[in-house]
Design brief:
By secondary structure, the protein is an alpha/beta fold. It has one domain: Rossmann fold (3-Layer(aba) Sandwich). 36% of the residues lie in helices and 26% in strands. Bound molecules: adenosine-5'-triphosphate. InterPro entries: AAA+_ATPase, ABC_transporter-like_ATP-bd, ABC_transporter-like_CS, ABC_transpr_LolD-like, MacB-like_ATP-bd, P-loop_NTPase.
Length: 261
């Protein structure tokens, strides 16, 4: 077991949301997305159906241009769709006003991007507490929860560091802490290990696996890396805007360790 796994276990929070009961958390039905540029149009999602259950760790793979990032952006409500429905915890994202969708996203979703997207003038703990402050958690409680979350990702000693004072792997662990601190229903990650070397990538995936296993945190991640994909509990393959494969596996408990060079 890695030191991150130990930290995650020993500093565990009580779950604030019932998890892992196999209920459908997200249901996408007949989702279509068309990009139009002048006369050209690209059908990026083609009548796509997908159900994600509470507690799943889903990897989305597929060739470049197959629609992985579009799927993430549309199913999280970051981008508009051209047809179909996306229900998150029973709420149809695209029947809400833009304002309501933004609020719903802030309360029920966390995001991890390849490029970290941390606020450069904020310290690690200020970055992590931000999602809590945005949904009205009192400052003192937000700070306590952010500090605890940084401990869980193995960064207690970096609390007061700014992003440019941390390694890429450390910055990505801060973004993991920021994405999970509010215990969102679902965390979306687009190439979360894309900027990291293989050892750092393995640490981040190990951390995500541990948070998924300990808290039942639902995570959907897009990756090009077959090693990362194999460490997920469910692997979805995309081709031409459609699902081309969907397999559920139970990776061995030490899959994270096996990824390490
Ligand atoms: N903003 C956009 N405007 C026009 N076309 C777009 C836009 N974004 C994506 N596309 C097109 O939509 C299709 C799906 O793109 P998407 O980025 O979702 O694929 P992807 O599988 O994530 O690719 P990659 O692995 O290269 O990141 C591609 O044909 C792409 O060229």
């Amino acid at each position: 077991m890695s030191r991150f796994s130990v930290a995650a276990r020993t500093a565990r929070h009580p779950a604030e949301r019932p998890v892992g009961d196999g209920d459908a958390l997200l249901v996408a039905q007949g989702v279509r997305k068309v990009y139009r540029t002048g006369e050209l149009s690209v059908l990026a999602l083609d009548d796509l159906d997908l159900t994600v259950r509470s507690g799943e760790l889903v990897a989305v793979m597929g060739p470049s241009g197959s629609g992985k990032t579009t799927l993430l952006n549309c199913l999280s409500g970051l981008d508009e769709i051209d047809g179909g429905h996306v229900l998150v915890e029973g709420n149809d994202l695209f029947e809400m006003s833009d304002h309501a969708r933004t609020e719903h996203r802030a309360r029920s979703m966390g995001f991890i991007f390849q490029s970290y997207n941390l606020i450069p003038v904020f310290t690690a703990v200020e970055n992590v507490e931000l999602p809590l402050l945005l949904v009205g958690v009192p400052a003192e409680e937000a700070r306590e929860r952010a500090v605890a979350m940084l401990g869980r990702v193995g960064l207690a000693h970096r609390e007061r560091h700014r992003p440019n004072e941390m390694s890429g792997g450390e910055q990505q662990r801060v973004t993991v802490a920021r994405a999970l601190v509010a215990r969102p229903a679902i965390v979306w990650a687009d190439e979360p290990t894309g900027n990291l070397d293989s050892a750092m990538a393995a640490q981040i995936m190990d951390l995500l696996r541990q948070l998924n296993a300990d808290d039942g945190q639902t995570i959907v991640l897009v990756t090009h890396d077959p090693v990362i994909g194999a460490a997920a509990s469910r692997l979805i393959r995309m081709r031409d805007g459609r699902l081309a494969g969907d397999s559920t596996t139970v990776p061995p408990a030490d899959a994270g360790d096996a990824m390490r060079p």
